[in-house]
Batch of 2 targets.
Target 1
Amino acid sequence: MSYTTYLVGGAVRDRLLGYPHDEHDWVVVGATPEQLLDAGYTPVGQDFPVFLHPKTGEEYALARTERKSGVGYGGFTFHTSPDVTLEQDLQRRDLTINAMAMDDQGQLIDPYGGQADLQARILRHVAPAFVEDPLRVLRVARFAARYHHLGFQVAAETLSLMRELARSGELQALNAERIWKEISRALMERNPEIFVQTLRDCGALVELLPEVDRLFGVPQPEQHHPEVDTGIHQLLVLQQAARLELPLAARWACLLHDLGKGLTPEEHWPKHHGHEKKGLAAVKAVNQRVKAPRECQELALLVCEYHTHCHRALELRPETLLKLFKAFDIYRRPERFEQFLGACQADAQGRTGLEDRPYPQADYLRKAAEHARAVSVQPLLEQGLQGAELGKALEKSRLHAVAAFKTD
Ligand SMILES: Nc1ccn([C@@H]2O[C@H](COP(=O)(O)OP(=O)(O)OP(=O)(O)O)[C@@H](O)[C@H]2O)c(=O)n1
Ligand SMILES: [Mg+2]
């Protein structure tokens, strides 16, 4: 018996959109696993009907239907058989724009109105079975972030399904790896703030990142923050982070830098004295809950603690500058310090009306750091210094170098 292969999912969607896409997913209709094994495909997992092409390595999935059989991921049963149709396979998918297929003649198969929704710029679920996978809440928010600049919006009825999922508590059953994968991809999209905003719109933000959610409604002094609301500031900072094309760790740090402001007692509003240190515990909690990679965790903690130092860079004493450099280990980790400067710039410019204000602090710190790094240990070694003494002398030379830079 012969089988038919179709291109599906993101590749079809992005081809129709004229959007770059470099991964191809295929669906195979009318085949048994044995047929694919005989043709040289390798199975991806034990009980999962997905195979890798012998030459291209791309994913080929047997057409399947899915049923949810329990709470959480893994609570799925698949049904594959050669008589599962393409339409059935497409129906189990998340969004209409993701539920189109293309045959080898370039002919589009679009039973659920995906093309119309692409044209209307709508992210709409295919069927009520959307709710069987809570990860889709994050996926839709991520697509909203990715295609925002093209005018895409989440359909009202899809948003209500997302709200239902958020309210059901099912998001708690998602494992950290899947959540992080979505968050990290979303942060790297062109409008990462739309991801956070969409999660908030459907009540998922408080489920997934309650520490971020609680910033909404918390005021800041209007003098420095014309947008006033800390949650809005948060979104604006992410927008700037994308505009500055910051790498993932810096964007993650941007998202978490002000968590301390959510912990200020109301009677102190709109001031947030000491929010930098106060936020550290919250940053740590989020870091661990989503199992962010080490680099992201570290930078988020450092940016939380030191972003105000960066804004005040020009007023800092040489001693304080050196302490900052030490905290960042700028001598061995120059790229991490650069990411810190980027995140702080996004923080300074992520304020209504201040998006284009200059941020001379970054260059100032960059130069000061260069002077500290340029201090050579060689002359000190030649003086015969060792151990703690050597360390102290090196510190002193650096202090001189930074002080000299400051008076310049
Ligand atoms: N929770 C999920 C994950 C995936 N899919 C379906 O599987 C396809 C492929 O999934 P994936 O590669 O994760 O996403 P893409 O849509 O290809 O988008 P991208 O890779 O660009 O993120 C999707 O288009 C969608 O039809 C789904 O319905 N529900
Ligand atoms: Mg894909």
Target 2
Amino acid sequence: MSVPVTAPATGADLTITDVRLTPILVADPPLLNAQGVHQPYTPRLIIEITTTDGITGLGETYGDTKYLELARPYAQKLIGRSVADLNGLFTVADEVAVAKERVDDQVDVGGLRGVQTADKLRLSVVSGFEVACLDALGKAQGLPVHALLGGKVRDTVEYSGYLFYKWGEHPKGIDSEQDDWGEALDPSGIVEQARTFRRRYGFRSFKLKGGVFEPGQEIAAIRALAEAFPGSPLRLDPNGAWSVDTSLQVIEALKDVLEYMEDPTLGTAAMAAVSARTDTPLATNMCVTTFDEIKEAFTRDAVQVVLSDHHYWGGLRNTRDLAAICRAFGVGVSMHSNTHLGISLAAMTHVAATVPNLHHACDSHYPWQSEDVLSERVAFRDGAVTVSDAPGLGVTLDRDKLDALHQRWLDDDGQMRERDDAAAMRVADPDWETPAFPRW
Ligand SMILES: O=C([O-])C(=O)C[C@H](O)[C@@H](O)C(=O)[O-]
Ligand SMILES: [Mg+2]
């Protein structure tokens, strides 16, 4: 292996001596989507990689069992390697077996993140370790992560306000934390939520998570937003809940105010059928979620914007590769988000800062997370995060906070350790089954 374990300029020893994995449960509000509702707590995995010199890099990824069972043996294999050996992270991942039942006939979070393959599972684990290696390497070299990716092309990264239909609180009788967002179950509730987003964070564009109510109500919500925030870029994302015809009807009703329509219908073929009959751009984080899916989707002109997500695309450098492919095909790129904490927001911001063809505000769930493992939260100002020039990611772990969220994970009887939005919905509605798609 030719990757140096000693940094020539600084003399820092980059050898990995310890990897610490801490599964946690993070409070999550009752956000509704096409599958059901978010659980009161969601699993995340915090990764700490330490070098011989005692430098520690931080990473974050999904924390459900299927990720933990890969992350544990993978972490062991990294001891003795260099944090600079970023390509080696993928080689080592191929040595970790993925259980067949984890991928056979499976989709990712009920399909919210598209297909589930062994490769994608591995990449979803590698990404957290890649971020931790980059953080450690940056600290060792005195360079921010964006510099390790080639350097920032912007000083701030814009995010959109991610609006959700939501209940005022989780169902009574189960452990949960109260949030201060209130209920939003109709157009006026959504506008009120958007006003709160704007007041607290300054977001200029908004995305509404749809596929919850019949399309007429969701059209009314977007119309109400357009009226309340004239000129703001707006997006609607029903996670594939509509047929091709319904998709076209909704697009027709909203085409004057939509920046893009996100995953109106399921699968590349149906997206291509919609795309062929509208000029409104279609975005996806469902039918293009792996490199293998790009060729068909792009050659059929099924999507005009790909919403990358460094967690399942395999890290920050793969995200840049994806952006380069999109650029070559004239396809736009932006960022998808699931529930995540500040380590991931910092990582998203570093990579987004380096992508020249990023022309849409990125998604982020972070405002919905009242808890974090950082000593200082990452701040949104005027709807954007300032790109840090501090070494590494530029964030600091608060061990007490990490320990408290880990204790919650330890105390859990197992129910919250797997994200399952349909099961969470059944707590309120025992007959709930995720509807067959297209639902409308
Ligand atoms: O399609 C999307 O943008 C997402 O899947 C984002 C999130 O997963 C969101 O839908 C959620 O967590 O409910
Ligand atoms: Mg989406």
